[in-house]
Design goal:
CATH topology of chain B: Ferritin
Largest sheet of chain A: 4 strands, mixed
Shape of chain A: elongated
CATH class of the largest domain in chain A: Alpha Beta
CATH topology of the largest domain in chain A: GMP Synthetase, Chain A, domain 3
Helix content of chain B: 55-70%
Radius of gyration of chain A: 19 Å
CATH architecture of chain B: Up-down Bundle
Radius of gyration of chain B: 18 Å
Number of helices of chain B: 10
CATH superfamily of the largest domain in chain A: Fe-S cluster assembly (FSCA)
Distance between the termini of chain B: 39 Å
Oligomer: heterodimer
């Protein structure tokens, strides 16, 4: 490996470690990398290009995330960083790792199931999957509303411990 | 640029703008429910659906704006056009009415929007296909939600059944326009970019008939199609909607938050 590309490698690793400190403003338990929002990091000439994708089309957090990325990089003297937004491939909850899902659960949000488990022919595939209560782990839960506190979550209640909770919708 | 490439670009602009206008106008209508919905969960649901729609509208306006010559911005397209320049379906601009009217309008639109997007994911235009692939996941939730309410109210009490039946009758005449293909629709279909509205109509009808039966509701008798939205001939309601939606950017042009 020549010196030039070695420098780039080191720089990329540094940039990635900075990006690993940036969390989703609406779900601070997870970083944008764990959420699958961060899609790529490149260095073009002197510019760091960070590629991200929105979770939902209208996700209001995406502008905040863009600002957070440029601010964090500027703090480490990457002053000409640029954030690129891509729509394709469309974001899916399947990009969350098992560790990320466990963090969600500990934060009080029931993690999404694999989208391959959903049966689209069912009238309401969400109700056909069993959602465990993130507080008491009971499977006796019921859907209250298809839409919760943010676009990416539906609203549920545990019929054992009676706690209401959010379920991260598998998409 | 050759003449045919220029006309294709202008076709693509108008075709994209029509989808953007549908999403934007329906979003504005749904947001009128904020703090007024029958229950808190429903307040959140309707505005969340509106949020998805405005996100989709922004992607589509940004793409339309990129196809426009001379240059315009997404905000110019949303806030600086008058009613006769809007190309949305008449269905989406109809007033909210009561909750049943809103649900009827939403259900008939969702049952059209989802298969429309499913077809559009296979468009030869990669940007439209990408926007559709993202939106289709959101539209599935919209359709589930409005279907649930049609059933719950239709197959509820005698009173809720009657209100839902009346709402369906009110909205029904505006559903025909969704399937009337004009020259532009046919050219875009020919080019492998647009959606086949005949295929869409069959999918919509079978889905709607099945749901109405399960909700114990009766399909209204077909009437003449009321059309004109895509040609800028709107019902009076769009003027008031735009007046409210556009007042801020028009009274204070180029202001930033």
């Amino acid at each position: 490996m020549d010196l030039m590309s070695k420098n780039t490698e080191i720089q990329l690793a540094h940039v990635r470690s900075i990006l690993d400190t940036i969390t989703d403003p609406e779900i601070p338990a997870l970083t944008i990398n764990e959420m699958g929002i961060l899609r790529g990091v490149e260095i073009e000439a002197d510019t760091v290009v960070v590629t991200i994708t929105p979770t939902y089309s209208g996700c209001p957090a995406i502008d905040q995330i863009t600002d957070d990325i440029t601010a964090a990089l500027a703090k480490h003297d990457y002053l000409s960083a640029r954030v690129a937004l891509v729509l394709s491939p469309a974001w899916t909850t399947d990009w969350m790792s098992d560790e990320a899902k466990e963090k969600l659960r500990q934060y009080g949000i029931a993690p999404p199931c694999k989208t391959s488990l959903l049966d689209d022919s069912q009238e309401d595939p969400d109700v056909t999957v069993i959602v465990a209560c993130p507080n008491c782990c009971s499977f006796n839960t019921q859907l209250v509303s298809h839409f919760g506190s943010t676009a990416c979550k539906s609203f549920w209640q545990c019929t054992d411990c009676l706690e209401p909770f959010d379920y991260f919708k598998p998409i | 640029m050759s003449a045919s490439a220029a006309s294709t670009k202008s076709d693509l602009f108008t075709y994209t703008l029509r989808q953007a206008d549908n999403s934007m106008v329906l979003c504005q209508r749904l947001c009128e429910w904020a703090a007024r919905a029958p229950e808190l969960e429903e307040d959140i649901a309707l505005t969340n659906i509106g949020l998805d729609l405005i996100g989709q509208a922004r992607s589509l306006y940004q793409y339309s704006a990129s196809l426009c010559d001379p240059k315009v911005s997404e905000d110019d397209l949303a806030f600086m056009r008058d009613a006769h320049q809007w190309t949305n379906l008449l269905l989406v601009e109809q007033p909210n009415g009561d909750f049943a009217d809103t649900i009827a309008r939403q259900y008939f639109y969702d049952a059209w929007h989802l298969p429309f997007l499913e077809q559009l994911t296979r468009s030869h235009d990669t940007t439209l296909a990408a926007i559709a692939a993202k939106s289709v996941k959101e539209a599935k939730y919209h359709l589930r939600h409005s279907s649930m309410w049609i059933k719950r109210l239709g197959d509820g009490t005698e009173y809720s059944h009657q209100r839902m039946q009346d709402a369906i009758a009110t909205v029904w005449p505006f559903t025909k326009e969704m399937f009337v293909a004009d020259e532009l629709d046919l050219r875009m279909l020919e080019a492998g970019i647009g959606v086949d509205l005949d295929v869409l109509k069959r999918a919509w009808e079978s889905q709607v008939v099945a749901l109405l039966i399960s909700a114990t509701l009766t399909k209204p008798i077909d009437s003449e199609a009321i059309t004109g939205g895509r040609q800028g001939q709107h019902t009076e309601y769009l003027h008031d909607l735009l007046a409210e939606m556009q007042v801020l950017p028009r009274s204070m042009p180029n202001r930033q938050w």
